[in-house]
Design brief:
Blueprint (H helix, E strand, L loop, with lengths): L1 H8 L6 H9 L2 E5 L4 E3 L7 E7 L2 E7 L2 E8 L4 E2 L2 H6 L6 E4 L3 E7 H10 L1 H27 L2 H11 L3 H4 L2 H8 L3 H10 L1
């Protein structure tokens, strides 16, 4: 739980009692490679902090898996709109490797938001980071080359290339696995 604590401390200043209250509502969960945290068509009622491992968020379009995002150590993952608004989710979230997670359910999330102002502050930062990531991804798809996207991801998250199957990374970058292989050889 130390990584979760550090993740929060990296974003906000918080007293120990408030931190203890926040951490107390998270529950550990281990899922194995290939196991689903969430399937499309369901309502998402949990948010996960990834203590260790890799998870991907993807959809199937015309029989082809399209990876939106790959979550790794010390990141949160959920279907945000489904979690917040209790709508049916469009994404699958699946473990790429064995994962150790800390889970907060929707009910505890909102109770904590009312009881602990520091959680609300942290949660607002999480939301802002999620929107910033989405904006960056959309801009990148529209205004950068495949090589630029590859180099950016390689620079920001080099461990992905050691731990995640290349077809998932290629899909997230919006390129074919063959194109990703060529880019890797050139670099």
């Amino acid at each position: 739980m130390e990584k979760l604590k550090n993740c929060i401390l990296n974003q906000i200043v918080i007293e120990e009692k408030s931190m203890d209250n926040i951490l107390s509502v998270f529950e550990p969960l281990e899922i194995t490679k290939g196991e689903f945290f969430l399937k499309s068509g369901k309502i998402c009622r949990q948010m996960a902090f990834i203590e260790s491992g890799y998870m991907r968020m993807y959809d199937i379009v015309d029989g082809k898996e399209i990876t939106l995002w790959i979550g790794s150590n010390s990141k949160f993952i959920t279907s945000l709109s489904s979690f917040i608004f209790e709508t049916y989710n469009s994404w699958n979230i699946q473990a790429i490797t064995d994962c150790k997670l800390y889970i907060i359910n929707r009910e505890n999330h909102f109770k904590l938001s009312k009881a602990e102002p520091k959680w609300l502050e942290f949660d607002n930062i999480l939301l802002a980071n999620s929107f910033a990531l989405l904006e960056k991804s959309m801009f990148s798809q529209l205004h950068t080359t495949a090589k630029q996207r590859f180099l950016s991801l390689l620079d920001e998250e080099p461990e992905l290339f050691k731990n995640v199957p290349l077809q998932f990374i290629a899909s997230m970058l919006g390129i074919t696995p063959e194109s990703l292989s060529r880019l890797r050889k050139m670099n």
